[in-house]
């Protein structure tokens, strides 16, 4: 049995890239191996506060992120849906790991440099050390597998290093913490910005026209797709004709992912046509696929009691898993208890 952990931050609204790159696959993981996988899906609000945030909006954003999980098809009866801050062991284990993690390991993490930019002296210590908290997120549950994209592989390697180092120092080299394996989903789709095909679609991008939010209504989706950047050419017939045309390739990739087709199948059907007609077809497909998610999210957000009950139940289950791991860690490290 695999124990799979994956999480998202409640920062801004989830968008099409989150759905096609992660959420849709989370749903599939529930059914894989005959439904034997144990899946934990967290809303990592502690990570969200490593950068400036709005305290008044955090709880609502947390609920909306959980609503997106459920609306996309994550079943709280088969998977744990929980909020990170509701499981204190995340922070407790993170501090224990922090005392044992060499500075050199953190200095190699490229995401801090990317996120802090020129303001690294003003960045929070939390932004610098959050890969350790991420390691604690994974190891507190002894997760065996973690779905990761390219931008998270380095952090998973850190979690593996921390697990191995702890086992060596405090458990005579025997496995206590399981070095987690990356879980590569074959159907994960990398969705790019609607305004720049060389940039990843992001929920934090300044312009809302760069992305399709899971909360967008049909008219908004249609407007964004119709105004999506393309070029003067027609829809490509093959991969060779996509070369140097990132916006064209992106729209074809989005269509293929939503239609459960290959890019080759999409280009066989639409190759040579004007983009205006292809965009109309993409609008119809996007609305058909996303409207049920948007509607379900709206239902859930109109009555937060259901979401709160699901998150409370998920936190209770997550705490049951985390507590014995933390207790044994404390014992192995020699603390009085």
| Ends distance | 33 Å
Integer-rounded radius of gyration: 21 Å
Strand line-up across the major sheet: 1-2-3
Helix and strand content put the structural class at mainly alpha
The helix/strand series, from N terminus to C terminus, equals EHEHHEHHHHEHEHHHHHH
Query: Low-confidence parts, pLDDT < 50 over ≥5 residues?
Result: none
Brief description of this entry?
This protein has helices spanning 16-35, 45-48, 55-72, 89-98, 103-107, 110-116, 125-139, 153-170, 218-226, 239-242, 246-259, 263-270, 275-302, 304-332; strands spanning 3-8, 38-43, 79-83, 145-147, 181-183.
Account of the protein in words:
This protein has helices spanning 16-35, 45-48, 55-72, 89-98, 103-107, 110-116, 125-139, 153-170, 218-226, 239-242, 246-259, 263-270, 275-302, 304-332, and strands spanning 3-8, 38-43, 79-83, 145-147, 181-183. It has 337 residues and is mainly alpha-helical. It has a 3-stranded parallel beta sheet with strand order 1-2-3. Strands 4-5 form a two-stranded parallel ribbon. Helix 1 links the parallel strand 1 (3-8) and strand 2 (38-43). The model has no long low-confidence stretch (mean pLDDT 93).
